[in-house]
Amino acid sequence: MPPVTATRCVDFEERRDRAMALFAEKGFGQVSMRELAAHIGLTAGSLYHHFPSKQDLLYDLIEELYEELQATLEQGRRAMARGESALSCLIAAHWQLHAERPLQFRLAERDICCLSEQQQMQLALLRERYEARLLSMIAPQASLQGDARMATAHVVANLLNQLPAMLKRLPEQQGLGLMESLLLGGIERTLR
């Protein structure tokens, strides 16, 4: 196997981006492996070498997004260590991530149902871990337990992950400020 070079990594990233764009444009279920291979500049056989199925590619794209979301929590932890607001840092990090990966957010919301049950369960575990860490970071005194705590974490995560798309027409600082106001207001009222 030839060594991994910067050019090969860039080619792979560009192909993944083209695959995401095709899935986002046509819908995951409407794209065949042959069409996908042609769209990204590979033969079908070569594509199958990298990904045994479209579902495996979609799973990798969504899993990568959850890994990036976990990394935003690390940014929030570092902000807290510096005495800064974790929530402000997390809002900015989610805004930036959404700007960099809007198609992955769309695929994660819209096409996760196209994955196998096992893949959906694995992603659900990643999401639950992310949501639990998120809520513990921004509302450590929350007295909610069980299903109420999980539901609150889910709502807060959804707001962080969907508001950037809803507010993208606003200037960045205005959008960030509005997100912070919405989240702070909701968190304060819910977690009293």
Automatic annotation (TrEMBL):
Domain of life: Bacteria
Keyword DNA-binding attributed: yes
Spans through the membrane: none
Keyword field: DNA-binding
Record InterPro entries: DNA-bd_HTH_TetR-type_CS, Homeodomain-like_sf, HTH-type_TetR-like_transc_reg, HTH_TetR
DNA-binding region: 32-51
HTH tetR-type domain span: 9-69
UniProt-recorded name of the protein: TetR/AcrR family transcriptional regulator
Native source species: Pseudomonas promysalinigenes
